[in-house]
Amino acid sequence: MADQDIKKKVKEQFGKNAEKYVASVSHANASDLAALVEWLKPEQSWSVLDVATGGGHVSKALSPHVSHVTSTDLTLQMLSAARKHVSESCSNVSYVVADAEALPFLNDTFDAAACRIAAHHFPNPAQFVHEVSRILKPGGKFLLIDNVSPEDKSLDRFVNTMEKLRDESHGRCYSVEEWQQWFAQEGLAVRHSELRKKKFDFPVWVRRTAQSEEQVMSVVNHILSADEPTARYFSVEKDAGQIVSIQIDEWMVMAEKV
């Protein structure tokens, strides 16, 4: 699929489901957002870029600690929902419709940038990393949180197939090794990282993006077809034959522009 077609799918999906992402438990995870602030250690003078803000949770978390947050998203409806969510308590956030792979900002503009649970929708992650490095000031910090694929190729195929069945706008969960290579190419030195498991309430998670019960069942059948090692890796939990929860890998990393 061409990049523009992928981005069109993203706009359609997030435009239709904007309010769901604002209310999403996994996206609004308070401990996750607190860790993001703790890792960045933002200063009151900073200007920060929030890339692909989604429901605006990162912008809202960082706003009290910095001078200004620029909140961006590819999807106008998503950005509008984020503003409604954030502006109730934050007056130092501005909103810009922007493609993460072609950021409309000058070089060396921001003290920090963050992107949380979004990059698996980007068709050209290496270009995204290039753009983030370009707009950061020397010594600027970049914090990324995203779903990642295991190094094992069969597990990689399983999780990416599952995500694509659930969400047509899904691009790809990339591996930690791939991200590390892109960071190194763009002069971003990893200072701190953590690979962890993220658990989803399956019925809620699958229906956030699925457009029909047929689509839900395609995800269910894919998961139920997994062999025992795969089901164990993703901690598939069932009750009376129904999928209750599933876990996937998530990587949190902070890098510095050197």
Plain-language structure description:
- With 258 residues, this protein is an alpha/beta fold.
- The protein has one domain (3-149, 169-197, 250-257): Vaccinia Virus protein VP39 (Rossmann fold).
- It is 42% helix and 28% strand.
- It contains 11 helices and 9 strands.
- It has helices at 3-16, 18-23, 30-40, 57-62, 76-86, 125-135, 153-166, 176-185, 202-209, 213-224, 228-233, and strands at 47-51, 68-73, 93-97, 110-116, 136-149, 174-175, 188-201, 237-239, 242-257.
- Strands 1, 2, 3, 4, 5, 6, 7, 8 and 9 form a 9-stranded mixed β-sheet that branches.
- The chain is globular.
- The protein starts with a helix and ends with a strand.
- The model has no long low-confidence stretch (mean pLDDT 92).
The value of Rg in angstroms is: 18 Å
- Name the CATH architecture: 3-Layer(aba) Sandwich
- Which percent range describes the beta-strand content? 25-35%
How far apart the termini lie comes to: 35 Å
- Could you give a short account of the major beta sheet? 9 strands, mixed
Shape: globular
Q: What structural category do the secondary elements indicate? A: alpha/beta
CATH homologous superfamily identity: Vaccinia Virus protein VP39
What is the top-level CATH class? Alpha Beta
Q: Specify the number of helices.
A: 11
